[in-house]
Amino acid sequence: LVCFLDDQTKEHINCTLPPMDGYPECEGKLKWMKEMWETDPCYKSFGVDGSLCSFLIYLSEIEPWCPVLPGRVGSSELEKNLEMGSEQAVVRESLEGLYSSVGNRPQYSWIHQRIHSMKEIWVEAGRSLSAKYNLTQRKAKQIIVHPGAITYESGVKIAESAFHGGPLGELVQWSDLISTLHILGHHLHLSGSTFLGIKKGACPRYSRVNVDLIYTDIVGFKQIQKSAPVIWSRYKCIIRVLDSFGTEPDFNHIAWAEKHNLKSPFGGLHLVPLQFYTMFPHTPDNTFLGFVVQHQLSTEEIEKLKSTKRQNQALVYGKRAEFWQGKEAYLDVIHKYLEIHGTVDKNTSIPSYVKNHGIIKGTAVQILLRQSKVFVGLSFPYEGPAPLEALANGCAFLNPRMHPPQSRLNSDFFKGKPNIREVTSQHPYAEAIGKPYVWDVDMHNLTDVERALTGILSQSIEPYVPYEFTCEGMLQRVNILVEKQDFCSHRESWPPVSALQVVKAEANTSCKEACQKAGLICEPAFFPNLNSPTSFAKYGVDCQTSQFSDSNLVLPAYNEDSKHCLFQSDSLLFSCVRSDQSLIRICPCRDYIKDQIALCKECV
């Protein structure tokens, strides 16, 4: 390295170089810095002045390419010192501080509208949660929010289509996550371009000492990989990926996916599967983030409804013409019992008896739902927020069954999704709620449809929202995830190991199924606690022989005949959802709070 020293750096010859073992790229990075450090003013802001010592300090403490110099404070100490002097998070009494951040960016227009429309509800939920739980002694975290799909560079145009009948599920979830983090008292940095405007190869504006969490989506994750590889490679443990339909471990694991031909445009991120945050609790391998079911109306709108009784009408769930195609016979039967309303583009060809309101704002949809008795599913879109909004407004949901169940094996929609989860109806979460709120029907069996309509119209239902989909429920859940869920260290186990309940699955049964049968949920965070012969012995499994392997997704497990035990050697391959015909799975389960499935009873 002495060859790098020139007249400018000779005065720093006393800069003692540490051993370079384990840092193969350090020498190349030093060469690059010597030539290029003046190309970005950001380097100077981190103390780079053209000297060898400044290069080494930067490349060891800001970027991860070189070892920390002897006598220097390592990044872990810097983080510890910063944490000790950080401010406390205080539950906020207003969303005003958010408006300038979201209101000044066109991509956030729909998000801004939703946040503003729910401001009173969020503030009241924050007060209610504070009254029930001790929310003091929390660090106010620095959080980057990067919804990659709404950036112009992504080309997805989800933000542009939001006011013209486009899909809203992801925008709903981003709106509610942003509101939640703000109310909980954290500091948000919202990104509106590729990743905070960072160009590939540029000096990073954020380092681990001043960013605690990064929320993004799959599009955004790939943008971070490309434009800010240092942030991605060093700090990916603080990344949380919003992923509507979920990513299963075998699709997430790069080598496994390639070997087993499971490559997906959305897979191969190689994260801990719990770093994927889903809209609904599809799979326990991922974390359930959720959203808020909006059903509250303003005082003026409530007054408008006081003189309006629930009408003998149905509202159809479908804003696009293609959702209605081929459903005429199904709709004809419903029209025999109810006046049918729609919210479709007015140039769309739909049955003449449908009273079409066109594309309308969310509050207008709430009013229509409160006037209607039935919310009619058309089998698509899958797993959106609207059916739960219907239930919240006292409107039953007609939920079409899927014959056969839809998955990437037989559906173009799911073909590229990084999972093989089978969708048994248009809305599996609503399906689990069941009657009297949700009625599953075969759209092609008109007798079945009439039977369901007769059952719905013979009763009246009260508005219903599961707690996990209320503002307060989301505040509770996200607060605990922010405070407790940690993929960067193993200093504190979460959920607490005391919540572990072990269940033996039958052959050809997944841990998800085995735990559910016992009234529990599979908890992948507990797999390491079972992954040894000693642990198996504690739960009554006698291992005559054993080995560690990364050749199967159902490990840890054992063969009942041979008493041969297999343990997982690759922690990214722990899976709640896979099964094997010849192996008995030992499953890590936990209890959960009713209507708050993400949290165990000891977690709050």
TrEMBL record:
It catalyses: N(4)-{beta-D-GlcNAc-(1->2)-[beta-D-GlcNAc-(1->4)]-alpha-D-Man-(1->3)-[beta-D-GlcNAc-(1->2)-alpha-D-Man-(1->6)]-beta-D-Man-(1->4)-beta-D-GlcNAc-(1->4)-beta-D-GlcNAc}-L-asparaginyl-[protein] + UDP-N-acetyl-alpha-D-glucosamine = N(4)-{beta-D-GlcNAc-(1->2)-[beta-D-GlcNAc-(1->4)]-alpha-D-Man-(1->3)-[beta-D-GlcNAc-(1->2)-[beta-D-GlcNAc-(1->6)]-alpha-D-Man-(1->6)]-beta-D-Man-(1->4)-beta-D-GlcNAc-(1->4)-beta-D-GlcNAc}-L-asparaginyl-[protein] + UDP + H(+). It holds the Pfam family Glyco_transf_18. The keyword Acyltransferase does not apply. It is found in: Golgi apparatus membrane. It is a single-pass type II membrane protein. Keywords: Glycoprotein, Glycosyltransferase, Golgi apparatus, Membrane, Signal-anchor, Transferase, Transmembrane, Transmembrane helix. GO terms for cellular component: Golgi membrane. Residues 42-589 form the Glycosyltransferase family 18 catalytic domain. Belongs to the glycosyltransferase 18 family. This is alpha-1,6-mannosyl-glycoprotein 6-beta-N-acetylglucosaminyltransferase. It comes from Monopterus albus. The lineage of its organism: Eukaryota, Metazoa, Chordata, Craniata, Vertebrata.
